[in-house]
């Protein structure tokens, strides 16, 4: 099975059938969803999207520019993008275009909060494209932790208020995270 850059298997567009597969994750408090890997990995990315929506900037203004799964190489490269494994999400993509310096579209305070959140809440399991050393990709967040580490964290975050809201909005997700 081909894998994306972070080692997770590339998935086809199916949301039914055996794991690993995709799930259409609703972001609570918005009328938007993200197509992401089912289970812990997708849960963590939706948890981040929900936090971002509440604390950084709203996701549901303007055009729909939240993107999850896509079968594509990294733009300008032959490596399979983490979007192909459903382990990456783009948030407010039209406001934070690829290649535009992170601090052109986020305030220093917002950038600091995002970094702090990823380090302390997500234990470094999610990486921000806004911190890429080369071409910045400030819309982009991707899972870089192992499945085991993601499962461990997801089981903790499931019990928080935000986690419970996400699970309530996504029937069936809890069972996959616990399986
Ligand atoms: Zn992306």
Oligomer: single chain
Shape: globular
Strand content: 5-15%
Largest sheet: 3 strands, antiparallel
Question: What is the strand arrangement across the widest sheet?
Answer: 3-5-4
Number of domains: 1
The low-confidence runs, each spanning 5 or more residues with pLDDT under 50, are none
Using only C-alpha atoms, the radius of gyration works out to 15 Å
| Total DSSP E strands | 5
* H/E series: EEHEHHEEHHH
Secondary structure: helix percent: 25-40%
Ligands in the model, by name, code or SMILES, are: zinc ion
Query: Mean pLDDT score, rounded?
Result: 95
Query: Helix count, per DSSP?
Result: 6
Ends apart, CA distance between termini: 22 Å
Structural class: alpha+beta
Can you describe what's shown?
The protein is of the alpha+beta class and 179 residues long. The chain has one domain (22-178). It is 33% helix and 11% strand. The longest helix has 16 residues, at 40-55. The chain starts with 21 loop residues before the first strand and ends with a helix. The mean pLDDT is 95. The protein binds zinc ion (ZN). Zinc ion is lined by residues 83, 88, 90, 140.
Task: List the main descriptive attributes of the protein structure presented here.
alpha+beta, globular, binds zinc ion, 11% strand, 179 residues
């Amino acid at each position: 099975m081909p894998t994306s850059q972070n080692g997770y298997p590339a998935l086809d567009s199916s949301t039914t059938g055996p794991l690993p597969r995709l799930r259409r994750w609703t972001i609570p408090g918005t009328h938007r969803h993200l197509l992401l890997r089912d289970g812990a990995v997708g849960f963590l990315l939706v948890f981040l999207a929900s936090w971002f929506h509440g604390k950084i900037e709203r996701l549901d203004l303007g055009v729909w520019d939240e993107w999850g799964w896509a079968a594509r190489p990294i733009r300008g490269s032959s490596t399979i993008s983490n979007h192909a494994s459903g382990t990456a999400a783009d948030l407010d993509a039209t406001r934070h275009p690829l290649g535009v310096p992170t601090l052109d579209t986020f305030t220093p305070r917002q950038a600091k909060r995002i970094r702090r959140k990823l380090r302390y809440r997500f234990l470094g399991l999610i990486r921000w494209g806004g911190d890429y050393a080369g071409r910045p990709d400030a819309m982009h967040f991707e899972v870089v932790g192992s499945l085991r580490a993601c499962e461990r964290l997801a089981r903790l975050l499931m019990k928080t208020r935000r986690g419970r809201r996400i699970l309530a909005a996504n029937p069936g997700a809890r069972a996959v995270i616990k399986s």
